[in-house]
Amino acid sequence: MSCPLIRVQGLTKRYHQRLVVDHLDFEVRPGECFGMLGPNGAGKSTTLRILTGLTPKEGGEVRLFDRFTNPADPEVHRRMGVVAQEDNLDDDLTVVENFLVYGRYFGLEESLIRSRVAELLEFAQLSERRDSAVRTLSGGMKRRLVIARALIASPELLILDEPTTGLDPQARHLIWQRLTALKNQGTTLFLTTHYMEEAARLCDRLMIIEAGAILAMGAPQALIAAHLEPEVVEIRPRHPPLDRESLARLPGRLEQAGDTLYCHTLDASEVMAHLRGRHDLICLSRPAGLEDLFLKLTGRELRD
Ligand SMILES: Nc1ncnc2c1ncn2[C@@H]1O[C@H](COP(=O)(O)OP(=O)(O)O)[C@@H](O)[C@H]1O
Ligand SMILES: [Mg+2]
């Protein structure tokens, strides 16, 4: 089997005596899309900042491309594209100029950069905006530009910190499509997100972390099957608050988040039969998903 591109063992990091990365063990394998899923403050960016050489680790081992233990090694930087959480574009420069500055920073020849730019603009669907100042681009366009720019040196591994946070659904779908295309071309992806749908769509495997520690790791569907009943009925009161008492005997495992009650069950139709005639409620049955898994593992809602 080919070697992992990232291998992390017992990784720790503390801020003000508090462990924000708490003995992480994971690996990112060639060709896969691996996701790091967790609420705000879980330690996702800190982990990525360690892996990209922006902040030192405290304890544990990091091994990149089966060879490097120092993430700041220049060869690591050539082989690893990085998309930070905040867009770090130069607002006053044009789209093309941003590529040129970035490519020079990597020490690439001007002619090589220029030949890559046309292809990357096409990839990012920004060819028509090549001479626009960055500050005139939409949020989605800026994000696509940051992703395309990270590809300037043709990295085999692309690391993305919350690639679609803050974007509207259309812009988000376009980025998902671009990332899927990259993966299909053989680029390995390691991304963080707090969007369950994003993780479910893109990731071959993922880990759910909270307070710097891993709660679960595996392929999305396998994780759901291992931890959850297959179906969920979501129950909301037409006029809150929820009267939980009257629903205590539903045939399933009950979890509440806000005014919504989730009934996890082997058979949603049985639950729906119990709810017949309850016109005070809005009931919806659906298959269990990653969001349910997250709620089960953490016992609470995602924080934005
Ligand atoms: N430079 C820093 N100094 C002090 N605390 C930090 C610093 N960076 C992050 N933290 C804290 O570490 C925790 C994890 O942060 P972060 O890795 O940014 O989480 P995430 O990316 O999952 O939202 C948070 O509680 C955050 O406040
Ligand atoms: Mg973050």
Give the SSE layout.
Layout: E1 6-15, E2 18-28, E3 33-37, H1 44-51, E4 59-64, H2 74-79, E5 80-83, H3 95-105, H4 110-123, H5 139-150, E6 157-161, H6 169-184, E7 188-193, H7 196-202, E8 205-210, E9 213-218, H8 220-227, E10 231-237, E11 253-257, E12 260-265, H9 268-275, E13 281-287, H10 290-298
Parallel strand pairs: 3-7, 3-8, 5-6, 6-7
Antiparallel strand pairs: 1-2, 1-4, 8-9, 10-12, 10-13, 11-12
Helix pairs in contact: 3-4, 5-6, 8-10
Helical fraction: 25-40%
What is the CATH topology of the largest domain? Rossmann fold
| Protein structure class | alpha/beta
Low-confidence stretches: none
CATH evolutionary superfamily of the largest domain: P-loop containing nucleotide triphosphate hydrolases
Instruction: Please give the domain count.
Output: 2
How far apart are the first and last residues' alpha carbons, in Å?
Answer: 39 Å
> What ions, cofactors and ligands are bound?
adenosine-5'-diphosphate, magnesium ion
Continuous helix count:
10
Specify the overall morphology. Answer: globular
CATH architecture descriptor of the largest domain: 3-Layer(aba) Sandwich
Strand content: 25-35%
**How many β-strand runs?**
13
| CATH first level of the largest domain | Alpha Beta
Spatial strand order of the main sheet: 5-6-7-3-8-9
Oligomer: single chain
Please outline the major beta sheet. 6 strands, mixed
Radius of gyration: 22 Å
Order of helices and strands: EEEHEHEHHHEHEHEEHEEEHEH
Instruction: Compute the average pLDDT.
Output: 94
